[in-house]
Design brief:
Oligomer: single chain
Radius of gyration: 21 Å
Order of helices and strands: EEHHEEEHEHEEHEEHEHHHH
Structural class: alpha/beta
Distance between the termini: 27 Å
Number of helices: 10
Helix content: 25-40%
Number of strands: 11
Length: 331
């Protein structure tokens, strides 16, 4: 993801049932939220319910900038919505959604493009509880270098300019129209080192702009009227190919092969399943397993209880690995 500075790995989990909803929270679960959803609805609901329950005076939402992941599950409607900052890039997210389609059969699985705000919209909650304001996203524009980031292209009478920025797309839009005169020349490019996570295309003649992103957008398209007078904005969801088409393919970037993305997901699952008990937050036993043992004690020799935990965890992910194998055979 392009950089918006954060600390911690905060995540919200929401379960909606019978006209009411429960909010759960983890201050360390955001990076692996996708993995905790992968085994399917039963596993995910058990896991989510096992996180810290926020109720009464404790029901305070993390602001949208600090919340790195969230999921909302509506069992009655068979609907799952989620996002996470640690998505791994366009192709990693694509194969993740493909696997979820197999492990959540019959469910509508959706990416929450606006981040935590999308959760509150679905609950009918006041967005001011989480909104941090435009000033939080006003940052200096920086070249992406070898990192993923935001592809900004500018179409004008003389042709098309392309910039690879380390910034998140929300930072580009938050700056308003003056961003067009502040794009750093050192970010000019015709070839990116990695697939970007987002992109913005400006047509200076038509005064129109197109935005796509898999990074949270924090409802940024509600803001442009203040910083973009006379401009019309269009949202492309995650359609990076449409962005490239607008540039007449004057800029290019590599796209990770699907088989490689599936392999990376399988590796993450193996590590995750080996350390977290099914449907529970981290326990002292899990944390102990992750630490080197005292002198003379071989942590490689698991106790019977630890072995049972490991078997249960790995068993929960067996259908996920089967789904990955099925997808790999289709390639």
């Amino acid at each position: 993801m392009a950089t918006v500075i954060r600390m911690g790995h905060r995540a919200h989990y929401v379960i909606v049932q019978d006209g009411s909803w429960d909010v759960h929270f983890s201050d360390s679960g955001a990076s692996d939220l996708d993995l905790d959803l992968l085994p399917g609805p039963d596993f995910a609901l058990t896991f989510m319910s096992g996180q810290r329950h926020l109720t009464g005076r404790e029901l305070v939402w993390t602001n949208e900038l600090l919340c790195e992941a969230a999921a909302i599950v509506v069992p009655g409607a068979k609907r799952l919505g989620f996002y996470l900052v640690n998505h791994g890039g366009i192709m990693s997210r694509s194969v993740l959604l493909d696997v979820l389609a197999l492990t959540w059969p019959g469910w509508r699985v959706e990416w929450l493009y606006q981040g935590l705000a999308d959760v509150l919209v679905r609950l009918g909650e006041d967005l001011r509880q989480v909104h941090v304001g435009v000033s939080s996203f006003l940052r200096r524009l920086r070249p992406a270098g070898h990192y993923r980031g935001c592809l900004v292209t500018v179409a004008e009478m003389g042709g098309i300019r392309a910039y690879a920025l380390l910034n998140a797309p929300v930072e580009v839009v938050a700056m308003g129209e003056r961003v067009l005169s502040r794009l750093p020349t050192e970010a000019l490019t015709t070839a990116l080192h990695q697939t970007p996570d987002s992109g913005v295309h400006f047509d200076l003649v038509a005064r129109q702009a197109w935005l796509w992103s898999i990074d949270p957008l924090y409802r940024v398209l509600d803001w442009p009227s203040t910083g973009w007078p006379g401009w019309t904005w269009h949202f492309l969801a995650d359609d990076w190919a449409a962005h490239l088409a607008m540039t007449a393919n004057t800029v290019r970037f590599p796209v990770m092969e699907r088989c490689k993305a599936l392999s990376k997901l399988e590796t993450r699952i193996g590590r995750h399943a080996a350390r977290r008990p099914a449907g529970q937050a981290f326990t002292p036993a899990d944390l102990a397993l992750a630490q080197p043992g005292p002198a003379g004690h071989d942590r490689g020799m698991a106790t019977p209880e630890e072995s049972d935990h490991a078997a249960a965890r790995q068993g929960a992910y067996a259908p996920v690995l089967t789904a990955i194998a099925a997808l790999a055979r289709r390639m």
